[in-house]
């Protein structure tokens, strides 16, 4: 343990879970470069998390899960991301789905219980599939071009989804689609082994390579009438607090970069100096700046997460605050990684250095929802109102 984490661990449950995940995250860090270089999904990491019961972290206790809150969720996600960011981002989508479903209870209870039990008992992996080539991020409000047509007691679904994280490992996808000719959007629970479901391997980015966020292709996929698990509820929805797993992930990347740079500063001793470069005032200034950026981002993340948990009556008004966390944290994380690379110098550009991976991965956070322009615009509108 160290001060980076002790400050935010408040209960015995949090301590027990953190120690369990801390040991796994160290192993993830040893494999991270291999997954990144090969562009391979981290099956080994996910299997170890499955065996630790992590997939059930945010599932309600009444359905056999751990029932942990948003606060524990982001705390553990940050630690996993410091080991392997792609693993953390993937599991964040899965766990976030169930945290949202647990808090909003918009599904039929039997359907929700059935899916939760599959996760608890069979270690099923679930993610939402909402992004499409022509609509961009679903947070900008575009209507999906994927269509579900009713035929008898079945839905026939056709469409293509992009950025489907964990595509090679998913057991179920919650797919957004137009509901017939109603002009409304709905979400359908689709087993990945259903006939007509396929994965097109399109994931060729330089960042978060291990997430394998390939395209999900649906061609005349037939599902039961009950597969329509959610219909568009408009503006009555709670703010999506579970998306705090995104800033938690990129703070974890920044922590890993910070640790690498601090270790380098303490141990690298060029013959032009009497001691390590950590004794140089300019290097100390950069380390201090990293600490300050992390302090600001983490204090904001954990205070807002704690408010969500402790003040449920305030949740409907917390949208702008949740969005601000993402903006502040991801931009701070990018700055921390940049400072870390400046401390280490040209060595940080070597493919053998984890810093070049952290640099690529942290850039992805700027393109996860909500985007910076939406955050700033939302805050401005709140001020003007």
Mind explaining what this structure looks like?
This protein is of the alpha+beta class and 385 residues long. The chain folds into 3 domains: 3-124, Butyryl-Coa Dehydrogenase, subunit A, domain 1 (Orthogonal Bundle), CATH 1.10.540; 127-232, Butyryl-CoA Dehydrogenase, subunit A, domain 2 (Beta Barrel); 236-384, Butyryl-CoA Dehydrogenase, subunit A, domain 3 (Up-down Bundle). Helices cover 50% and strands 14% of the residues. It has 11 helices and 8 strands. It has helices at residues 3-6, 12-38, 43-51, 70-83, 85-104, 109-122, 245-267, 281-310, 319-344, 354-364, 372-384, and strands spanning 126-129, 147-151, 154-164, 172-179, 185-191, 197-200, 214-224, 228-231. Strands 1, 2, 3, 4, 5, 6, 7 and 8 form an 8-stranded mixed β-sheet that branches. Helix 4 (70-83) crosses helix 7, helix 5 (85-104) runs antiparallel to helix 7 and helix 7 (245-267) runs antiparallel to helix 8. The protein is globular. It starts with a helix and ends with a helix. The mean pLDDT is 96. One of its GO terms (molecular function) is acyl-CoA dehydrogenase activity. Residues 12-98 form the Acyl-CoA dehydrogenase/oxidase N-terminal domain. Residues 129-221 form the Acyl-CoA oxidase/dehydrogenase middle domain.
Features:
385 residues, Butyryl-Coa Dehydrogenase, subunit A, domain 1, 50% helix, 11 helices, alpha+beta, Butyryl-CoA Dehydrogenase, subunit A, domain 3, globular, 3 domains, Butyryl-CoA Dehydrogenase, subunit A, domain 2, 14% strand
- What fraction strand? 5-15%
Biggest sheet descriptor: 8 strands, mixed
Mean pLDDT: 96
Rg (C-alpha, Å): 21 Å
CATH architecture of the largest domain: Up-down Bundle
Tally of contiguous helical segments: 11
Form type:
globular
